[in-house]
Amino acid sequence: xxxxxxxxxxxKANVLIEALPYIQRFNRKIIVxxxxxxxxxxxxxxxxxxxxxxxxxxxxxxxxxxxxxxxEISSWVAKSGMEPRFVGGLRVTDKETMNIAEMVLGRVxxxxxxxxxxxxxxxxxxxxxxxxxLTVKKKYQxxxxxxxxxxxxxxxxxxLYDLLEKDYLPIVCPxxxxxNFETYNINADDAACAIARAVNAEKLAxxxxxxxxxxxxxxxxxxxxxLTVDEAEELxxxxxxxxxxxxxxxxxxxxxxxxxSRVHILDGRIPHCLLLEIFTNRGIGTAILASGHTKFYDAxxxxx
Length: 304
Known about the structure:
The chain has about 300 residues and is α/β, with parallel strands linked by helices. The protein contains nine helices and 16 strands. The chain has helices at about 5-25, 45-60, 70-80, 95-120, 160-165, 190-200, 230-235, 245-255, 275-280, and strands at about 30-35, 60-65, 85, 90, 125, 135-140, 145-155, 170-175, 175, 185, 205-210, 215, 225, 225-230, 260-265, 285-290. It has an eight-stranded mixed beta sheet with strand order 5-8-2-1-11-15-16-14, sandwiched between helices. A two-stranded antiparallel sheet has the order 3-4. Strands 6-7 form a two-stranded antiparallel sheet.
């Protein structure tokens, strides 16, 4: 082995050593991954995400995937001769659109199961309807009726605990039922947040199409690596946070206030972003910390 090859091997060993304290810290802990955005459309990125989550499972974590599928739903709605319509970022969902959404999300879930199982890990795709996992009521957007869009009122996580106990990787599509057993579409971010709270997840990771949270969205140099939940709420009050980041950051704060230790906003377009965030000292994206948790950078990150 020549010197260059030896250095390459040594670098790989250092990566594994760097990951060790995080494997120890989060062993047997539940991590919820909200999977959506461009990482669902690009086949290579999709494989990378699934490899990341599968690796988390194999080194002792307990991951749960909550997936979206909005762009594919819009594509099928258009193929059906209808025009997708949104109010405040939420899809207006009539009965026919609801049927399409359930079909598409179910198909996406099964595709993800196939990818996970091809890597040697058992996976099961479940709907929020299964086992009464997600109970909802009709959601109104600024007082407007937007159809079969649900607001989660209750999470029954037993089916998830049962699957984790049997060594399965649960893959959840955000569909729920109301008290009259009507089916509703649910915003995937909302579903991931509610599930993470219900299972007392150690981490909740949102895979998005942005690098993270900026103090000034117009200045890319203002990316914030870590925020306490109090700092995140202060940032909301500045008026700089808008668009799709506003509800996402609000969800992060709510999760961190309700039992989730760390909530991560990651750019799913970066290959292996989950592993880079969880297993490296520097990490990427933005992490929102629950009260009482030390910032990684203040504590040298390791062991925090």
